[in-house]
Write a structure and sequence with these properties.
The complex is a heterodimer of chains A (173) and B (400). In chain A, 72% of the residues lie in helices and 0% in strands. Chain A is mainly alpha-helical and 173 residues long. In chain A, helix 1 (2-22) runs antiparallel to helix 2 and helix 2 runs antiparallel to helix 3 (50-75). The radius of gyration of chain A is 21 Å and the shape is globular. Chain B is mainly α and 400 residues long. In chain B, the strands form 2 sheets. Chain B has a two-stranded antiparallel ribbon with strand order 1-2. In chain B, strands 3-4 form a two-stranded antiparallel sheet. Classes of the chains: A mainly alpha (173), B mainly alpha (400).
């Protein structure tokens, strides 16, 4: 059952991701991205990280993508015009992509030992095993081991917001 | 196998009751608003207009679904589905009664809900956040400036009000230390001095009355209801995001709005008002359902037989009266009482909150859009933060 769900949603993720790049209309791309986020949430659920899955659903597919959609709708941008590309790029690009994917697969296979592979439900709580994906544990690790990166990220986001305001501000004469 | 059959029966039952309730909430809304405005409301179809929802449904199904030629077809058809899908799903995670209830005359025990999730509340939040895509897409795909403005307003408003709403929800979670809806309600059992229920709005050390109010205000905005119904403000935007929709596609948006109302009211009931726990000690509280039903039946009988105000009242009201008294007597049977008294309390609290929604709609005027945004960011958001801070401090001070 786990394997069926995994393959279903992993395929869905990849299809949505490819569709996002291929679609020429921004709204279709944004909706495909929502599909990617939602399927990823299901993959987290299969690992047993319930809280992370829900955070993914609420923050990414709920809040951030609404903002994306909002901006696209506000600008009301139409479909991108199709540009004529050289056929030769396709012939060069396809083998390069295959080589790249092969290399990535090879390195993952060799660099990561088999006993460190993540299995279904490996974040779940069990007898004598702490629940990695529970809200309590996520909160604990966020406010103890990873407190500094967490705080620095918030400062980073604050800087980004300030930058956006400075860039978007109208000059007052 | 038993589990499958039991789940299917429960699913059918909940779906039937929920769908009927959705249609009749609309009847209640029209009646209440009519009486607030000194009208009588729907009363032609059936006694007191009770068959009006049925007539509306038949009308909406048989209507011609006109599609304007300038819409974006894929998204135009997708939007109502998205809206209604994400509005109906959360109902399946809401517990409405006790766990491990034994069904009379059988040896089957079951929970009074469809599925029990340990992250139920978060999933409901996530799914109701997805519901905005239905409205935003409908506004955009209609290819109409009024629709587009409605859709934009809706998405901006929902993002803004999700923040105070989520912050208001965190405080009860902090106090009860769980995110499972069933555990949350179980944590609110009991009474202080045998009088004050230990609901979250009264729970020591930090009574959550403030976060309950913040949650309800944000819920009005999240469900696009008056006074925050800017996305469909009819005097500026014709009908907002659903201008171009007719027949069942329009009905889908309508249904989604009411289903969302039921969902937020259920969450408020479970988180702040103690779910299915009675308002007085169970020894008395278990008899209140019977009293309420028999009392309602007695009022119906009195108005039907002694003081009939309208032509058919001396026939219709006694029938309702007898039905109510029958239900009341049913609640006196110990087995039924054990089974249905919690469901009665949950439903009663839910209906009171829904009544507040309707009451506010009949009373308050609409906000201006800039007032709406300023209210969310400069008042609600800081207030919710301060409330969370105080709750956190008090919880940390009282627990070791």
């Amino acid at each position: 059952m786990d394997a069926i769900l995994f393959f279903l949603f992993a395929t869905l993720t990849v299809i949505c991701a490819i569709n996002m790049v291929l679609q020429r209309h921004p709204i279709s791309s944004a909706l495909s991205l929502i599909g990617v986020m939602g399927s990823l949430a299901v993959l987290y659920l299969l690992l047993g990280g319930e809280f992370i899955a829900m955070a993914q659903l609420i923050v990414y597919s709920g809040a951030i993508m609404v903002l994306f959609l909002f901006v696209i709708m506000l600008l009301n941008s139409g479909a991108e015009p199709k540009r004529n590309r050289h056929k030769i790029l396709l012939f060069l690009g396809a083998p390069l992509l295959v080589i790249l994917l092969g290399l990535v697969g090879y390195f993952i296979q060799t660099q990561i030992p088999a006993n460190e592979m993540v299995k279904f439900g490996s974040w779940e709580s069990g007898p004598g095993k702490p629940a990695f994906g529970s809200p309590q544990n996520v909160g604990m690790s966020l406010f103890t081991s990873y407190l500094l990166p967490f705080e620095i990220t918030s400062v980073l986001i604050l800087i980004a917001i300030l930058g956006a305001i400075v860039l978007a501000r109208k000059e007052i004469d | 196998m038993d589990f499958m059959i039991l789940s299917l029966i429960k699913l059918g039952l909940v779906l039937f009751i929920f769908m009927t309730a959705l249609a009749y909430i609309q009847w209640i809304e029209r009646k209440v608003i009519a009486h607030v405005q000194l009208r009588v409301g729907p009363k032609r179809v059936g006694p007191h207009g009770l068959l009006q929802p049925l007539a509306d449904v038949i009308k909406l199904i048989t209507k011609e679904g006109m599609v304007p030629s300038h819409v974006n077809h894929v998204f135009y058809y997708l939007a109502p589905f998205v809206a209604v899908f994400f509005a109906l799903i959360p109902i399946s995670f809401i517990p409405f009664g006790q766990a491990n209830v034994k069904i009379p005359f059988t040896d089957i025990t079951t929970n009074m809900e469809l599925t029990d999730l340990n992250i139920g509340l978060l999933l409901i939040l996530g799914l109701s956040g997805m519901g905005v895509y239905g409205i935003a897409l409908a506004g955009w795909a209609s290819n109409n400036k009024y629709s587009l403005i409605g859709g934009l307003r809706s998405s901006a408003q929902m993002i803004s009000y999700e923040l105070p709403m989520a912050l208001a929800l965190v405080s009860p979670l902090l106090m009860l230390n769980t995110v499972s809806l069933r555990e949350l309600v179980n944590g609110q059992e009991g009474f202080y001095f045998n009088v004050i229920p230990r609901w979250t709005i009264f729970l020591m050390p930090a009574p959550q009355i403030l976060s309950f109010i913040i949650f309800m205000i944000a819920a009005f905005a999240e469900t696009n209801r008056v006074p925050f119904d800017l996305p469909e403000a009819e005097n500026e935007l014709v009908a907002g995001f659903h201008v171009e929709y007719a027949s069942m596609k329009f009905a889908a948006f309508f249904m989604a709005e009411y289903a969302n109302m039921v969902t937020v009211c259920s969450v408020a009931t479970l988180l702040f008002l103690g779910g299915w726990h009675p308002i007085v000690v169970p020894a008395i509280g278990d008899w209140i359902p019977a009293l309420v039903h028999i009392g309602g039946g007695a009022i119906c009988l009195y108005h039907g037989l002694v003081q009939p105000a309208r032509k058919w009242d001396n026939i219709t009201l006694p029938v309702f009266g007898v039905a109510f008294i029958g239900a009341g007597l049913l609640f006196c049977i110990p087995i039924v009482q054990q089974l249905l008294a919690p469901v009665f309390w949950f439903t009663a609290k839910l209906l009171i909150l829904l009544f507040v929604f309707i009451w506010v709609r009949a009373t308050l005027p609409r906000f201006r859009y800039d007032q709406l945004m300023r209210f969310a960011w400069l008042f609600m958001f800081p207030l919710a933060l301060v409330n969370l801070l105080i709750t956190g401090l008090l919880v940390a001070a009282t627990t070791n």
